[in-house]
Amino acid sequence: MAEHISFFDAIDANKRNSVILIAVMFAIFLAMVVAFSYIFDLGYCGPILGFFALLVYALIVFYQGDQIILSLSGAKQVSEKDQPFLYNVVEGLSLASQIPVPKVYIVDDPSPNAFATGRDPQHASLAVTSGLLSMMKREELEGVVAHEISHIANYDIRFSMIAVVFVGAIALLGDFAWRMMWMGGGGSRRDRGGGAGIFLLIALVFVILSPIFAEFVRFAISRQREYLADANGARLTRYPPGLASALNKIKAAGIPTKSANDTTAPLYFSNPFPSKIGSLFASHPPIDERIKRLQAM
Fold this sequence. Notes:
Strand order of the largest sheet: 1-2-4-3
Number of domains: 1
Structural class: alpha+beta
Largest sheet: 4 strands, mixed
Shape: elongated
Number of helices: 10
């Protein structure tokens, strides 16, 4: 028999795990900046310039990231008049979570899916695909929407933006370092013998591998937040079978979400690329495991 856990125990456990994961992401970025500075002999200027660039990049993503994501996804805003049934579900669950009603969008895509984005509950948007609306019963739609409302109420949307910032910054820094090396940068370090050569080799390997490590951490963060949103979504509706049934339908459909890409994939309710396998590379936890946890509540 499955072990029963409380909603609040599941939420607390996943919050702790997510904080650990974002700390690891910050440590990777910090080590990346130090390695970059060592390779190109920048001294203290390297970390200072790195953090300044990260700050500028973070501000852009923080204030404009949601609009960029909605645009990339082809989402169209709808009103209560356009979609009274969907709007009623979103409004009711928002009131239950004590947050403002987010802007509602529809993505013209046959795949059943949804996502939330924004920087806080006061500046949030919730998008569902046309496939989700056509496939789900009311209790199933409520389960999916409650999951996304949970992302908003728990500030997961801001958390996701931070993850995007770190991954993007690490990837850009790694690409820049690689190009500089090909152009002959880091010469002063290469000319030094002894231990300097060993440290240079270690720094180079780290610069090359850091973006890959960052992606692993980003996907791990996404998986932890999905478990948290499932737990809180079930608490909101007080009906875990509704969310479990929606996940079963999505699994059975197995339709890729064409409107998603590698950048936006972790934001979606379910893995938009179901053909991609492998736990390390998956942006979402296995659907069977999510269903199992819901059944244990």
